[in-house]
Model the fold of this input.
Amino acid sequence: MERLYHLTKSEGLSLPIIERLFQRTEFYEEGLRKKVTERIALPRDLDGVRVYIVFLEESTRTYSTFNSAALELGALVTGFPLAKVFSSFAKEEALKHAMEFWSGAGISYLRLADIIVLRHFEVDAAERAAGFSRVPIINAGTGGEDGEHPTQGLLDNYGFRKFLGKSNSLSIAFMGDVRFSRIVLSELPILHLLYPNLKVYIAAPEGFGLNTKARNYLIEKKIPFEETKDGREVVNECQICYVLRVQKNRLKDLVEGGLLKGEEAERLLQLYQENRDNYAVTKELYEISERKGTIFCHPGPISEKEQEIRPEVENLPRVKFLKQWAYGFPMRMAILAESWETQREIDMAR
Done:
């Protein structure tokens, strides 16, 4: 049986692993329901396992759900929510040395971590960490224009199935800042495996459309896609409309890293501001989508300033972001448990 160990990108996942994670997520979701309604305790599948949650970028949903998921399964959690400031990364420690130290490269039985959950501002950090670590590395989000967030892709697709049921077909629109969001690259490989009949729509302002890697993936896999500059043109074509906020923090990081000129970032932000109503879920857009019954999702956070999903529609029946976010809890329980089972087998074979 194919096993999950490191989870660094969505493209490395297989359909059997995805389906097994969905089954396990459903098991934990039901267990969490029974814990609340019937006071039935969940199995402590990570009893005594040491989980290090190391975040060099800010987070609310990802950090808190991984933390709760590990604790719920009985793990011992060490958290570094501000690792860029309050760890030796602030002293320019190499990623290699931190991973080797925590994972027991010196003396294997004296390792500090049994699983490492890593969020990093560098695009290839998770894969590099996996090359250095002797325990599973779970990518909780990497930066750059080609960054990924595979656990987000998994929980989203679990949610899509809960909202729409199992099917071979799906039409999905990504609307807003498609270029700089790590969502599209995290979703496409999973969507491609789950839905043989997949159609993708892109609604984005000039300069915020598909980046080169995402476009090449769609072309290589022969996934049909259409592009427009107006969200109103796609909401009656898609079952899921995935709304994406403008990535102001990522634009800033790209400018500081010399990958984007400051004046170009300013021009892009001004262009987005001038056209932001075309990429927001307004009352008008919601009403336009009524015929198709489009479901609206958002990875979070929703900008209080930009309001990609407007307050007057956020509690309407087809706006599902709160349920979508909630699925991060049982999905991340499933991911941690699956990776630990593989690590335990490796330990026993040594």
Notes: The CA atoms of residues 33 and 40 lie 9 Å apart.
